[in-house]
From TrEMBL:
Transmembrane segments: none annotated. Signal peptide: none annotated. GO terms for cellular component: extracellular space. It comes from the Eukaryota. Residues 1-237 form the Serpin domain. This is Serpin 6 plasmodium-related inhibitory serine protease inhibitor.
Length: 243
């Protein structure tokens, strides 16, 4: 609480519906109602801790897209040789931050500043863009590379065409955390959360993290961006098949 300003709220796993409603209401309040049902089911009676965080962002573009110019247009997620999908395509011309990476990555980065001049959305597009090309770029891209590109951006007259979108997604992050090496806290046999939960007086399986759920709601339109994200981790005491 003193380090992160976190809210600590006792919950009663035996009153699972009330506890779930309490957590969902907090996430909904923080995200301006964009994420209403962070937890989709009742808590297990063996639940010990639910760790949740959430964020909300809403800002208007410094240079907005003109709604009258938005048109139905083909979008090619797998490149120009692949199938196309009809989308609402926004268009805008202006003097924008721009940089072309002229090495083997052959990538263009364009900045769309927000009106408050404190934040910018960066659009990164590899040459001959497709889902495959973007995945290759993601596998190569590092924070240091991105910082270098942004530092070299110059204002340039640019035309941007961007699909109008509203994205929602829900992702189970357990496998992602395992790939990052967080295996011990996910195993009832190996987990050690003694600094968080006093389990010295309890027999049976140790507390461990058995669910990490992430939800996203993002809208990008002619006026700007509105986005919300939330993550919850459930610490349980019942053993599972995952070791």
């Amino acid at each position: 609480r003193s380090l992160y300003g976190a809210l600590i709220q006792p919950i009663d796993p035996q009153a699972s519906a009330a506890s779930t409603a309490l957590i969902n209401r907090w996430v909904s309040d923080v995200t301006a109602g964009k994420i209403r049902n962070m937890l989709e089911g009742p808590l297990s009676p063996s639940s010990r801790v639910v760790i949740a965080n959430a964020l909300y962002f809403k800002a208007k573009w410094k240079t907005q897209f003109e709604p009258l110019v938005t048109r139905d247009a083909p979008f090619f997620p797998d490149g120009l040789d692949g199938p196309s999908y009809r989308v609402k395509m926004m268009s805008m011309s202006g003097c924008l931050p721009f940089y072309r990476v002229r090495d083997s990555l052959d990538t263009t980065i364009v900045g769309l500043p927000y009106r408050d001049d404190t934040s910018t959305m960066y659009l990164i597009q590899p040459a001959n863009s497709s889902r495959t090309a973007i995945r290759r770029l993601q596998a190569t891209l590092t924070g240091k590379m991105l910082d270098s590109w942004i530092s070299q951006m110059k204002l340039q007259s640019t035309m941007v065409r961007l699909p109008k979108m509203h994205l929602r997604n829900s992702v189970d992050l357990l496998q992602s955390f395992q790939k990052l090496g967080f295996n011990s806290i996910l195993s009832p046999a190996k987990s050690d959360l003694s600094n968080m939960i006093d389990s010295s007086s309890s027999a049976g399986p140790k507390p461990y993290v058995n669910q990490i759920l992430h939800k996203l709601d993002l809208t990008i339109d002619e006026e700007g961006t509105e986005g919300a994200a939330a993550t919850s981790a459930l610490v349980d005491r019942i053993g599972s098949q995952r070791q």
